[in-house]
């Protein structure tokens, strides 16, 4: 367990300064917090997300114990370059970023599209990953993943009609509990008031959706070679990346652990942040 008694150690994501580093001609924007000196936990984010889309109620508890790094992939937010149209290229960019920071081993915390990138990373660069957290995600060729684009555009239109954030529709059930959780989640994302990231561009979003569609139509990958300890989590009613795919990952990754939260959707870990954050911290500090 890390020593966080030094008051100079920032463990609040809303206060983490935005930094940049250049690798292979791309300047990556990132934020880091928590006690340094240990293997870092690198956060891989979701479709259309920038640095401002991580829930501080998830990040902060992890940063209370571990060195945390979140970053914008190529062409997203304040990072330069063009968004890749394949998940595999996104993983190669992530490797370039991690190595530019000087790390030879990391733990991975991933959500949605980030979980797809993480799967490529752990298969193609197994020496780089020590522990793996996969949330709200699914394997290559997973049934229904190629429908993400249609679901996204549909829910963006629904959100526009009600002047809501699309994530309230995409991530949460449209019942009383889900609506309340969605509003609370969006409010938490707005807690950072200074040094906000640049919003994702429409072209970048479309390219990410193209990459996800390709992932969904890819040949299933062999995940039996993943030997890293793996924690998988989701809600039981994920409309974006169907919940059954979390169970599929659990079956296919040896000795993995699975947590499924009731009456929740794609953003189940955010709806149940009070329950999930301690599970994630225990897994990452085990």
Automatic annotation (TrEMBL):
<feature type="domain" description="AB hydrolase-1">
    <location>
        <begin position="40"/>
        <end position="270"/>
    </location>
</feature>
<dbReference type="InterPro" id="IPR050471">
    <property type="entry name" value="AB_hydrolase"/>
</dbReference>
<dbReference type="InterPro" id="IPR000073">
    <property type="entry name" value="AB_hydrolase_1"/>
</dbReference>
<dbReference type="GO" id="GO:0016787">
    <property type="term" value="F:hydrolase activity"/>
</dbReference>
<dbReference type="InterPro" id="IPR029058">
    <property type="entry name" value="AB_hydrolase_fold"/>
</dbReference>
<dbReference type="Pfam" id="PF00561">
    <property type="entry name" value="Abhydrolase_1"/>
</dbReference>
<keyword id="KW-0378">Hydrolase</keyword>
<protein>
    <submittedName>
        <fullName>Alpha/beta hydrolase</fullName>
    </submittedName>
</protein>
């Amino acid at each position: 367990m890390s020593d966080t008694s030094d008051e100079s150690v920032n463990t609040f994501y809303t206060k983490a300064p935005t930094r940049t580093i250049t690798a292979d001609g791309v300047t990556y924007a990132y934020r880091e917090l928590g006690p340094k000196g240990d293997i870092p936990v690198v956060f891989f984010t979701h479709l259309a997300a920038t640095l401002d889309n991580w829930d501080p109620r998830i990040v902060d508890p992890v940063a209370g114990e571990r060195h945390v790094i979140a970053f914008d992939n190529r062409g997203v937010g304040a990072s330069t370059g063009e968004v890749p149209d394949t998940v595999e290229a996104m993983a190669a960019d992530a490797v370039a970023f991690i190595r530019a920071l000087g790390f030879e081993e990391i733990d991975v915390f991933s959500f949605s599209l980030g979980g797809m990138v993480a799967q490529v990373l752990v298969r193609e660069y197994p020496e780089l990953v020590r522990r793996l957290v996969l949330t709200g995600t699914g394997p290559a060729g997973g049934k229904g993943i190629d429908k993400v684009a249609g679901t996204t555009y549909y829910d963006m239109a629904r959100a526009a009609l009600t002047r809501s954030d699309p994530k309230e529709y995409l991530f949460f059930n449209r019942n009383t509990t889900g609506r309340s959780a969605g509003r609370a989640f969006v409010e938490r994302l707005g807690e950072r008031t200074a040094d906000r990231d640049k919003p994702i561009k429409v072209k970048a979003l479309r390219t990410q959706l193209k990459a996800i569609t390709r992932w969904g139509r890819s040949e299933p990958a062999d995940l039996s070679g993943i030997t890293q300890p793996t924690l998988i989590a989701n809600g039981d009613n994920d409309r974006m990346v169907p919940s059954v795919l979390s169970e599929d990952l659990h079956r296919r990754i040896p000795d993995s652990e699975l947590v499924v939260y009731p009456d929740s959707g794609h953003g189940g870990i955010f709806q149940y942040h009070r329950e999930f954050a301690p599970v994630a911290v225990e897994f990452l500090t085990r």
